[in-house]
Structures are given as C-alpha cells and as structure tokens.
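[09:14] KT: can someone run the structure on this one? pasting the chain below
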Amino acid sequence: MDYKELSNSISREREFEASAAFPVLMRKVYLWMTLALVITGFTAYYVATNETLLTAIMTNSVLFWGMLIAELALVIGVSAAIQRLSLTTATLMFVAYSVLNGATLSFIFLAYTASSVANVFLITAGTFGAMALFGYFTKTDLSSMGKILMMALIGIIIATIVNIFTKSAGLAMILNYLGVLVFVGLTAYDTQKIKQMLLLAPDASEGAQKIALLGALSLYLDFINLFLHLIRILGDRRE
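[09:31] RB: done, structure tokens below
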C-alpha cells in the first residue's frame, strides 16, 4: 500500500470514528441537560414544600445571597476551568449548581399555581425542542445572530438591574418578552455551535465529553431562562 492509499485509509477511519462518536456525545449533552433539569425541578419542589428550608432561605439574606454567589462561582468555574478539571469533578459541579438553582427557584411554586407551572413547563419544552431541532438541522450559519443575541442579553441584564430600583411593571413585562425572544434564538444558536464542536471530536474521549458537558450547561441555562421569562408572562399567580 503506497502513502496515498494509506493516507486515504486513515482519513476514512477517522471519519468513521467521528461519525460513531458524534451521536454518543450529542446524547450525553441532552442526557446531562435533562438530568440537571430533573434535579432542579425536584429540588425546587422539595424546598417549596419544606417549611424549615424555605423559611431559612427566604428570611436569611446572607444564606440566599451566598447561594446565588455559589451558583455564579460554579458556572464560571466549570466554564473557565473545564480543561483543568476531571470529567467527574466537572459533572459534580454541574449537579451542585442544579441543586442550588432549584433551591433558589423554589419561590416559583409559592408565587404561581401548580397547574400553570406545569403548563408553562410544557410550553417551554415544546418551544425549546422546536428551536433545538432548527439549530441542529439548519444549513444557515447562526454565528452572526448569536453575537447580536449576546449583546441583547447584556442589555436585558443591565435594564433588569436598573428596574430593580425603578420598579416599572411595564418595563419588566417588556424585558420578559425580549428575554423570550433572546433565549429562543440562543437555543438554536447554542445547538448549532455544540453540533459543530462535537463534529470535530475524533472520539468520545474525556476531552470531548467535557465539551459535551459544557454544551449541556449552555442548553440548561437557555431552558431555565426561557422558562422563567415565560412563567412571568403566562403564569397564574396565587391569590
């Protein structure tokens, strides 16, 4: 076998390995994302129905803000140090974040009726699924849209912080509608980006699985934020 034939043989072998690894990695992305959502949901419900825990979180500002800071630290830690962390450590940090997020989101079960929470969750899941499919199958490059959406997200965050002091109900509702649009778009963009990155993975090594874990975290955040904006628009508040 000459060099050219050997090179072609190696290329075909790598293509086969990549095609075999890609579906495995994509399944891991959605498995980790789904697991995180389940953990968050059960944690939120458990805390909301546990008077002792709920009172501790809602009345102790140090504990509440400490949890929020811990959440932020975990997200930044996983995202920034993923290459230095083992897959097991990164996964445990993701799980810890899911638990903390569930605890801080427990107020949803107090502010909104259980039926509206369930309905909005189904709406979120349907919307998220549709946009994830679009991002996966579209041939259009969504990179430029992603940059615009990220700038819009920064604007929404700044406006939300300002509105904490101005307390404008009208502005809050506008920001919720804009938030829905932004996270609908980010779901498609992140899905395409994850697909492109995982297609480059030659195998399902630990390094490739770390990329899949980061992808799961991105989609988890898209889902949670989309749900939060939709519940504020469509949710039925308790009397």
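[09:33] KT: thanks! Residues 1-17 have pLDDT under 50 and may be disordered.
[09:34] RB: yep, looked fine to me
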